[in-house]
Amino acid sequence: MDTQDLSAPPRAQSATGDNHPRSGVIHDNVRHTANFTVVGNHLAQHPDLSLLAIGLGLHIQSVRGGTSVDIKSLAARFKEGTVRIAAALRELEAHGYLRRERERAADGRIVTRTVSCNDPRARHRAAATDCPARPKAPVRPERRAVVRKALPAVPEPSCTAPALLRAATDLLTDLRRHDSRLLLSATDTAHLAPGVAAWLERDVRSTAVRHALTANLPDEPLHRPAALLAHRLAAQLPPPAPFRPVAAAPPPPRHPIRNCDGCDRGFRGPETETHCRGCRTVAAPHP
Question: What pLDDT was estimated at residue 122?
Answer without folding.
Answer: 75
